Structure formats: structure tokens, C-alpha cells
């Protein structure tokens, strides 16, 4: 029995995934399933670059605005369950599913046979670990290195949420997070439900991507991001909520709480977004199934056409790797 194909557009933040995906979706009779870990939250619109109804151009979008900000329990296993259900539903209507986003773990959840741990979230322990990290930055990553070096090597030292989750899994089960579901090479040869065809947008000159990031942050501020964050702050949400760790929200909440100036908050957003994009690029480079397209070397229409041709005939692109990008110096 043939597996259902799913088409995926991945890539770093600000690379133009949304616009390209809408163009491709129209060409191939597809609906879009978001793979973005912040766009899932209701009320976090501007800072997550969530496409408005107008920007969606009539293309149905799924898994945006589906989780409340105060929800601490939404995780990658839940994403896979909801996304898989939507993909099957889309197929039942005779349409293609186009998965779009930059959250690498979400994409891996659909394209690798990951076995998610049954360890239940322990809010009190998470808060305790978070306070330890506040008092001694980097201590949690060191703790994780001692118990699960494979996962520690994969996670950035500042990725507090996932570091805490990995420690939590070990403490509750006695097994490492990597043992529960880190077989990204699929050495065991396990089956997955879908057949993924994966494209990623990249830039021949990373400095151009960093310029796009800075322009987008400025545009978000012009479009009312500070008012959006103020509205969130006025509701009194706990600042440690996963939703509020998103880029733009965390830094502007720091400003509203008097921890930095407005200008400092903006520079932090730009710096942290550049660093996040760099980690996203590294994540997707590891996956040899992905075919990359240089977004800065094609027109918008040309990029849509190239992606469409790849999705329709991926076998024609095998071995046709793009040139190596030039890394920008700014971090």
C-alpha cells in the first residue's frame, strides 16, 4: 500500500516560507498545515508572523490559533497527533497537505518514527529547575550533559524549555530523552505514516537573511507588536509560560517589566532572532532528505515554480544540491 505523500517547506525565520507556500498551495491544490511552535497560540499574531486572513489568500490553514496561551502542556507529541489527523482529513477531500514552518522538532515528528516519552509534566519540578538556571546560567545544560550527553549536544545551552523536559524525562523514567525518541537516522528502520518530500528555503549569503530579519522586526514594531504584548501582559500571564518564550514576546515583556529599555529590547529581539535562524539552518542541514532552494537567487514567482516542480517530480532533483551558502559575520 502506497503511503500518503506530504509536502514540506522548511527553513529559517524570515526566509519567505509563508508567501512561497501560499503560491505553491494554489498551484498544487493544497491546504497548509503550520509547523510553527508559536503560531499555534491564540493572540500571538504579530510577533509570530502569523498570516492574516487576507495574507492566506483563500488557502485553508491549519494548526494556527488552536492552543490557549496559558496552556503549559501542549507538546510535540500532541502536535504530531493533531497534524496527522489534519493531513488525513485533507487527503480525504482529495487535496494535498503542505506542511510549512521552521520548528524542526515538529517537522521531525511527522517524518521520523519518534517514540515520545510518557513522562508527565511536573510543574513544580520545572519551576525549581528554572530557578536554578536563573541563579546559575548554564547549570541545567551541564546537568543534562552528565545524564544525557547526546541530547545535550543537540540542544543549545539557552534552550531552557527542552533542556528541562529532557531532565524531567530522565528523572521520571530513568531513561534518556535520546533513548525515547532520538533516532533521527532511523537506524532501526521503523515505519512512518507518511512519505515526506521536504524542501527548505536558504540564502546564498546569510547576511541577506540577517538583513531580512532586522527589517521584519522593525515592521512588526510598526504594525503594533508592542500593543499586542501589552495586551498579553495586562492579562497577568505567568512569564514562564512556554508561549511567552517566543521571540519578540519574551524581550518586550522584559521591557514592560522594567528589566531593559525599549531600544535594548528591540536589539535583543534582532540578536536572538539571528541566533535562532542560525540554529534552524544547522538543524535542517543535518537532514540529507531535504532539498534546499536559494530564496535570494530567484524571483518570488520563480521560487514558487521551482518548489512546485520539485514537489511534482522530486526524483528529478536527486543529487542536484545547491551551492554552499556564505555565512554572515553578524550574530
Brief digest:
With 331 residues, the chain is an alpha/beta fold. 48% of the residues lie in helices and 10% in strands.
Pick out its properties:
single chain; about 325 residues; alpha/beta; Rossmann fold; Histone, subunit A; 6-stranded parallel sheet; 6 strands; about 50% helix; globular
* CATH structural architecture of the domain at 4-114 and 191-208 and 284-317: 3-Layer(aba) Sandwich
Task: Bin the strand percentage.
Answer: 5-15%
Radius of gyration, in Å, reads 20 Å
Largest sheet: 6 strands, parallel
CATH fold type of the domain at 4-114 and 191-208 and 284-317: Rossmann fold
**Integer average pLDDT:** 90
Broad shape: globular
What does this structure look like?
The protein has 331 residues and is an alpha/beta fold. Among the domains are: 4-114 and 191-208 and 284-317, P-loop containing nucleotide triphosphate hydrolases (Rossmann fold); 123-181, Histone, subunit A (Orthogonal Bundle), CATH 1.10.20.140. It has 14 helices and six strands. Helix 2 links the parallel strand 2 and strand 3. Helix 1 crosses helix 14 (300-312), helix 5 packs across helix 8 (160-173) and helix 12 runs antiparallel to helix 13 (262-285). The longest helix is centred in the C-terminal third of the chain and has 24 residues, at 262-285.
Present the secondary structure layout:
Blueprint: E1 4-10, H1 17-27, E2 30-34, H2 53-56, E3 61-62, H3 76-92, E4 96-100, H4 104-111, H5 123-135, H6 139-147, H7 149-154, H8 160-173, H9 177-181, E5 194-202, H10 206-222, H11 225-234, H12 249-256, H13 262-285, E6 291-294, H14 300-312
Parallel strand pairs: 1-4, 1-5, 2-3, 2-4, 5-6
Amino acid at each position: 500500500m502506497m503511503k500518503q505523500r506530504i509536502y514540506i517547506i522548511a527553513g529559517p525565520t524570515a526566509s519567505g516560507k509563508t508567501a512561497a507556500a501560499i503560491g505553491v498551495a494554489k498551484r498544487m491544490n493544497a491546504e497548509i498545515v503550520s509547523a510553527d511552535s508559536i503560531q499555534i497560540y491564540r493572540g500571538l499574531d504579530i510577533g509570530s508572523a502569523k498570516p492574516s486572513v487576507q495574507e492566506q489568500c483563500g488557502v485553508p490553514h491549519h494548526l494556527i490559533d488552536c492552543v490557549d496561551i496559558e496552556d503549559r502542556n501542549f507538546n510535540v507529541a500532541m502536535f504530531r497527533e493533531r497534524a496527522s489527523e489534519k493531513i488525513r482529513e485533507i487527503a480525504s477531500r482529495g487535496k494535498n497537505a503542505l506542511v510549512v514552518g521552521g520548528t524542526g522538532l515538529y517537522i521531525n515528528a511527522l517524518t521520523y518514527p519518534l517514540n515520545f516519552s510518557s513522562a508527565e509534566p511536573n510543574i513544580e519540578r520545572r519551576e525549581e529547575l528554572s530557578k536554578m538556571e536563573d541563579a546559575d546560567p548554564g547549570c541545567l545544560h551541564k546537568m543534562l550533559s552528565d545524564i544525557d550527553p547526546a541530547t545535550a549536544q543537540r540542544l543549545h545551552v539557552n534552550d531552557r524549555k527542552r533542556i528541562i523536559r529532557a531532565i524531567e524525562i530522565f528523572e521520571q523514567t530513568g531513561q534518556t530523552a535520546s533513548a525515547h525518541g532520538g533516532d533521527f537516522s532511523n537506524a532501526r528502520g521503523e515505519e512512518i505514516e507518511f512519505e515526506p518530500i521536504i524542501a527548505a528555503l536558504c540564502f546564498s549569503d546569510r547576511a541577506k537573511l540577517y538583513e531580512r530579519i532586522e527589517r521584519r522586526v522593525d515592521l512588526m514594531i510598526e504594525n503594533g507588536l508592542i500593543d499586542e504584548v501589552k495586551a498579553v501582559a495586562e492579562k497577568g500571564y505567568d512569564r514562564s509560560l512556554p508561549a511567552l518564550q517566543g521571540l519578540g514576546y519574551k524581550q518586550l515583556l522584559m521591557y514592560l517589566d522594567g528589566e531593559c529599555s525599549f531600544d535594548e529590547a528591540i536589539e535583543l529581539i534582532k540578536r536572538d532572532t539571528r541566533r535562532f535562524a542560525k540554529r534552524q539552518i544547522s538543524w535542517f542541514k543535518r537532514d540529507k532528505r531535504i532539498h534546499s532552494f536559494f530564496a535570494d537567487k530567484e524571483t518570488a514567482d520563480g521560487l514558487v515554480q521551482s518548489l512546485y516542480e520539485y514537489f511534482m517530480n522530486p526524483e528529478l532533483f536527486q543529487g542536484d544540491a545547491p551551492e554552499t551558502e556564505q555565512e554572515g559575520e553578524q550574530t
